[in-house]
Amino acid sequence: MQRDEFIKAVSDMADQVWDFHERWKFWPFEGPDRPPSEAIAERQAILDEEIVELGEAVEADDSEEIAAEAADVLFVALGHVLSLREPGMAGVRAVTLKNAGKTEETHRVRPDTGKLLPISGKPHKWR
Q1: Which of 46, 73, 76, 114 sees the fewest Cβ atoms within 10 Å?
Q2: Nearest to 74 by CA among 56, 58, 94, 51
């Protein structure tokens, strides 16, 4: 896989997430602005289901199904971001910047999970 292939595939998915939500008139294309907790609460069961299906694919050790279910999780997560409107976009930008700033000098890999944790500062909630 090449970098440009990855970027194109994810960009194409984001384009389709927009079209999907517009076609089905899912939030945010109808209705007033709502608090983020309300917008996500309506959608959380969908993401939970996709995460369970990803876990089942992992348990079955089915590479094609794992890839499809991981992509389903991403599609639904992008829909979550879209449902949040501007705060969702602000969140994408903030997380992108936050992760771009992580380096070997500032973070370490947690061996049991692979999660990056700060070398110094307050303890992470997963510790």
Answers
A1: 114
A2: 51
